């Protein structure tokens, strides 16, 4: 019994995009915060070991 409906999914997705277009701050946060996190974590997780004592 498959209860998933593509038409309902598309309707909800369209509704959400319309709402994001109305509220610019929410759209900026949905796009901006992940980009900032990606940049910060890219610099924080550095796999180049420097100045580490050897065993």
Explain the overall architecture.
By secondary structure, this protein is mainly alpha-helical. 69% of the residues lie in helices and 0% in strands. It has helices spanning 6-22, 24-44. The longest helix is centred in the middle third of the chain and has 21 residues, at 24-44. The chain starts with 5 loop residues before the first helix and ends in an 11-residue tail after the last helix.
Amino-to-carboxy terminus distance: 60 Å
Radius of gyration (Å): 21 Å
Quaternary structure type: single chain
Low-pLDDT regions: none
Mean of residue pLDDT?
87
Class inferred from helices and paired strands: mainly alpha
Task: Write down the overall geometry.
Answer: elongated
Q: How much strand?
A: under 5%
List keywords for this structure.
single chain; 55 residues; mainly alpha; elongated
List the helices and strands and how they pair.
Layout: H1 6-22, H2 24-44
Task: Write a brief caption for the model.
The protein is mainly α and 55 residues long. The chain is built from two helices and no strands. The mean pLDDT is 87.
């Amino acid at each position: 019994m498959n209860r998933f409906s593509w038409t309902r999914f598309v309707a909800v997705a369209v509704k959400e995009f319309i709402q994001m277009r109305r509220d610019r701050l929410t759209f900026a946060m949905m796009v901006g915060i992940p980009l900032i996190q990606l940049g910060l974590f890219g610099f924080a997780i550095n796999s180049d070991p420097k100045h580490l004592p050897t065993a």
